[in-house]
Design a protein that fits this description.
single chain, alpha/beta, 2 domains, nine-stranded mixed sheet, 19 helices, about 40% helix, elongated, binds ligand LCLJCK34, binds 4-methyl-5-hydroxyethylthiazole phosphate, binds magnesium ion
C-alpha cells in the first residue's frame, strides 16, 4: 500500500545527495536526523550511482521512512521506485514524459514534476488532476547542488508567476514546493513573498538538499528549518508595527521626526554618483548620519549599528556581490532596506540588475517614479524611454492600482512618486501560512495619496527623487514607535513640504538645491506638520 496522496505533508521536503555528507555521517544518518526533526517528505536523488547501489540504499531508506510514517519519492528512476515500492517519483522536463510515468506507476503513486517556467503549467493543467500531484518550483536561487543547471534562477518573483499560472488554469489539485538555494536566511522571505497575485495560493512547502545533507549537525539544521516553517510571520524590520486603517495624525508625524532626531540613524547609501553629495547632505539635514560605503567587507558591521538602514539606489551600481552581501546583512540584522530601482526596465541590463536586487532581498520600502512602478506591476508594456519619465498626465487610478500590486507582490511599502505621490502598504499581508494564501488581495491594501500641488523646479535639479530615498531611509531607520507605513508617509509628506517651501524661496535651480536642504533642516528641527502645505488622503 502506498502513502495516501491526500495525507502528504509537503512542508519540509528533503532531497538526498550522497556526495555531500560530512565525514562521520552517512546518507542514512543524515536522513534519519532530518526525519527526527521535522522532515515530512523524502526523495532519494542519486545522479551517479550504479543501479545495485541505488536499490540497496533505496531499500534501507524505504524502511526508515516507513518507521517515521513519511512518504518516499524516487528521483528519475521509475524502475527503482517500483522495485523498492516507493510512494512516488519525481521527474523533470527532460525526463520521461508524465503520461508515460503515470501509465507505469499507476493511479495511486505520487508524481512530482519540475517546473521552471509559468508556461509549463499550461501542459500540467491540460493533463488534469490524474497526472501531476505536485511540482518542484525552481531553481529559486543559485545552487551548487544541481550540476549544469539548464535554467537560470527565477527568484521568488518567478515562483509567484508559477503560482499565478496554477490559479489561472485552476489547477487546484497540484501542490507546490520551492527548490534551489534555500537556506534559513532566505526561506522566511520566500514563504512570505510567494503568494499568487490574487492572494489565494501560497507554497505548500520547501524542498532542499544541502542545508540538511551537507550539515555537520543535520538534526539541528532540520530543527531550525522546521521552526522557521512553523512560524507564521516574517519580521524583517523591528518597527513593522501593524498599521491601523487610520491615517497618521500630525502628532504621529511629529513624533516620528523627533524620534529620528533622537536615534540618529546611520543611513548607508549604495547609490549613484550624482546623488552622493546631495544625499549625504539631505541625510545630515534630517539629523541622521550618512555613510556612502560600497565596501563589501564592512556591510555586516554597519548593519549591526543601532538604527542602521540601507538605501540601495541602482542609478549607478556597486559590484553585484557587494549589493548581495549588503542585502543579506541588513535582512539578517532585521534592519530596513529602501530600494530605488532607477530606470527599472529601461534597458535589459537594468531589468536584470534590478530584478536581481529584488530577488536577493526583502525590502522595507520600494520607491519609484510612475514608469518604474508601472513596469514593476507589469501594467505598462511600453518600455521606458529614459529614467526620468514623468507621471504628469497619467491616470491616478492606474497608478494606485500599480502601487498596490507592487506592494502586494513584494510585501513591502511602495511609493510611486509624481505630482501626487501614491503610497501603499503591502506589509500587513505579512503573515504567511503554508498552502493558504494571505487572506488578502491587492485591492484591500491601505493606500494614501500625498498632494501638495506641482513643484516643477524639482525636475530641474538632479537627484531630487534619489534624495526622497535618503529621506525615507532616515525616517524608517530612525523611527521605532510607529509603523513602517506611517514613517514612509511622513517622509514623503516632509519632503514634499520642504520642496514647496524651497520653491518659494529660491531664485533658480541652483539655489533651489540649497533651499531644499535648508527647508528639510528647518522642518525637521522645528517640527510642526500642521503647517506643512500638503494633503494626505486615504485612497481606495
Ligand atoms: C522537489 C524537486 N524539484 C525539482 C527537482 C529537479 O528535478 P530535475 O529537473 O529532473 O533534475 P534532477 O533532480 O533530476 O537533477 C527535484 N529533483 N526535486
Ligand atoms: C535538485 C534540484 N533541482 C533544482 S535545484 C536542485 C538542487 C537544490 O539543492 P540545494 O537545496 O542544495 O540548493
Ligand atoms: Mg530528473
Amino acid at each position: 500500500m502506498v502513502f495516501p496522496k491526500d495525507k502528504v505533508d509537503y512542508s519540509l521536503y528533503l532531497v538526498t545527495d550522497s556526495g555531500m555528507q560530512p565525514e562521520g555521517t552517512t546518507l542514512y544518518s543524515q536522513v534519519e536526523a532530518g526525519l527526527q526533526n521535522g522532515v515530512t517528505l523524502v526523495q532519494i536523488r542519486e545522479k551517479d550511482c550504479e543501479t545495485i547501489d541505488f536499490i540497496k540504499e533505496g531499500i534501507a531508506i524505504r524502511k526508515l521512512c516507513t518507521k517515521y510514517n513519511v512518504p518516499l519519492i524516487i528521483n528519475d528512476r521509475i524502475d527503482v521506485a517500483l522495485a523498492i515500492d516507493a510512494d512516488g517519483v519525481h521527474v523533470g522536463q527532460e525526463d520521461m514524459p508524465i503520461p508515460l510515468v503515470r501509465k507505469i506507476v499507476g493511479p495511486d503513486r505520487i508524481i512530482g514534476w519540475s517546473v521552471g517556467k509559468a508556461e509549463e503549467v499550461k501542459q500540467l493543467a491540460e493533463w488534469g488532476p490524474d497526472y501531476v500531484d505536485y511540482i518542484g518550483v525552481g531553481t529559486i536561487f543559485p545552487t551548487l547542488t544541481k550540476k549544469n543547471p539548464k535554467k537560470s534562477p527565477m527568484g521568488p518573483q518567478g515562483a509567484i508567476k508559477v503560482l499565478d499560472a496554477l490559479e489561472t488554469y485552476n489547477a487546484t489539485w497540484c501542490k507546490t514546493v520551492a527548490i534551489g538555494g534555500l537556506h534559513p536566511n532566505n526561506i522566511p522571505r520566500v514563504l512570505y513573498q510567494c503568494v499568487s497575485s490574487n492572494g489565494k495560493r501560497a507554497l505548500d512547502g520547501i524542498s532542499l538538499v544541502s542545508d540538511i545533507m551537507a550539515s555537520k549537525n543535520a538534526a539541528g539544521s532540520a530543527k531550525i528549518l522546521r521552526d522557521l516553517i512553523n512560524g507564521t510571520s516574517f519580521k524583517y524590520v523591528p518597527n513593522s508595527l501593524v498599521s491601523t486603517k487610520n491615517l497618521p495624525t500630525t502628532n504621529d508625524m511629529a513624533d516620528i521626526i523627533k524620534t529620528v532626531s533622537k536615534n540618529r540613524p546611520l543611513v548607508q547609501h549604495i547609490t549613484n554618483k550624482v546623488h552622493y553629495n546631495f544625499g549625504a547632505n539631505v541625510t545630515l539635514a534630517l539629523n541622521s548620519s550618512p555613510i556612502m560605503s560600497e565596501i563589501e567587507s564592512e556591510v555586516g558591521e554597519l548593519s549591526l549599528i543601532p538604527y542602521a538602514t540601507l538605501l540601495l539606489n541602482t542609478g549607478t551600481i556597486a559590484p553585484i556581490d557587494t549589493v548581495k552581501s549588503a542585502l543579506r546583512a541588513y535582512n539578517d540584522a532585521k534592519r530596513p532596506i529602501v530600494f530605488d530601482p532607477v530606470g527599472y526596465s529601461s534597458t535589459t541590463t537594468r531589468l536584470v540588475l534590478n530584478d536581481t536586487c529584488l530577488s536577493f532581498g526583502q525590502y522595507a520600502c520600494v520607491k519609484g517614479n510612475s514608469s518604474e512602478i508601472l513596469s514593476l506591476a507589469n501594467l505598462s508594456t511600453e518600455k521606458m524611454k529614459g529614467v526620468d519619465a514623468s507621471s504628469d498626465n497619467m491616470d491616478l487610478s492606474l497608478l494606485i492600482k500599480a502601487t498596490k500590486a507592487v506592494a502586494f507582490q513584494f510585501k513591502t511599502v511602495v511609493v510611486c512618486t509624481g505630482e501626487t505621490d501614491v503610497i501603499a502598504d503591502g506589509t500587513n499581508s505579512g503573515d504567511y501560512q503554508l498552502s493558504k494564501g494571505t487572506g488578502n488581495i491587492p485591492d484591500d491594501l491601505m493606500c494614501v495619496t500625498v498632494n501638495g500641488g506641482p513643484i516643477p523646479i524639482m525636475g530641474d535639479i538632479t537627484a531630487s527623487g534619489c534624495s526622497l530615498g535618503s529621506t525615507i531611509a532616515s525616517l524608517v531607520g530612525g523611527s521605532d514607535t510607529h509603523s513602517l507605513f506611517y514613517s514612509v508617509i511622513t517622509a514623503v509628506a516632509l519632503y514634499k513640504a520642504a520642496g514647496k517651501l524651497a520653491s518659494t524661496r529660491c531664485k533658480g535651480s541652483g539655489s533651489f538645491h540649497v533651499e531644499l536642504i535648508d527647508a528639510l533642516y528647518e522642518l525637521s528641527h522645528n517640527v510642526d506638520p500642521t503647517k506643512w502645505d500638503v494633503k494626505i488622503s486615504a485612497s481606495k
